[in-house]
Amino acid sequence: IEGGKYTASSRWQDSQYQHILKAENTIVVINDGIFDAADGITNAMFNASENGIITINGGTFKNVTGVIPQFAPYMFTYEKNGKLIINDGEFYGGWRFNGETATTDIYGGIFTVSYDGQSFHANSTHTLTIYGGEFSLNNGAKLNPENYLANGFVSILDGDKYIVLPDTYVTTAEELAAALKSNAAEINVILY
Fold it and tell me: Is 179 helix (H, G, I), strand (E, B) or coil?
């Protein structure tokens, strides 16, 4: 998917799950686009199911108008070895990790939730690993990626958001000089 605008309505009460996209036994790559919930009762916009893989490289994803706090609004739902890979994009809305084996890898992007019910809730059959990104605190919601960080990464609180970065330790002046000369767009220095 290279662009465009997409909407969906998914009424869980009626078992009418009309996701924008359901990847089942297939691979889907999203490079750009605007994806939004059509009404206030959307359950989930995307479903990775039956070994389906969704890779997101960019775009804007919104599902924030739900009126059923115990279920909606969720951005993604998973089942039966579904996999989601996020490299970039802007995401507004929550996450639902169903009780079946699934995987999410986040390498970048900007994530905002509206209340705690939308925060990450990975369970024992879902693996969520975060390698990068910005995770905003909105209306008191706690979207702390700390428990899901990949080895070698840290989460730093910067104002009203957490930023996930590679954790680089230096012990000598030469190592510090090399780190400061790297091609990284941003370098955070934490003194211990």
Answer: helix
- CA gyration radius, the chain: 18
Q: What is the pLDDT of residues 43-70, one digit of tens each?
A: 667 778 888 899 999 999 887 654 444 4
Range 80-83, long-range pairs (CB < 8 A, 24+ positions): 80/49, 80/50, 80/51, 81/50, 81/51, 82/23, 82/47, 82/48, 82/49, 82/50, 82/51, 82/52, 82/53, 82/54, 83/48, 83/51, 83/52, 83/53, 83/54
The C-alpha atoms of residue 165 and residue 143 are separated, in whole angstroms, by 16
Q: pTM (2 decimals)? A: 0.80
C-beta separation of 100 from 80 below 8 A: yes
Burial of 78 (0-12, 13-18, 19+ CB in 10 A): buried
Joined together, the tokens standing for residue 6 give: 């997409």
CA dist 172 and 181 (Å) reads 14
Cα 81 from Cα 123, distance rounded (Å): 14
Q: What is the number of H-type helices and E-type strands within the chain?
A: 1, 17
User: How is residue 58 written in tokens?
Assistant: 């960019």
